[in-house]
From TrEMBL:
It comes from the Bacteria. This is DNA-binding protein. GO terms for molecular function: DNA binding. Keywords: DNA-binding.
Amino acid sequence: MDDSLRLAHVAVHKVHL
């Protein structure tokens, strides 16, 4: 479950960048 949350977090950060 941590992987899924982490992937979503990274995706959001990538979009912000």
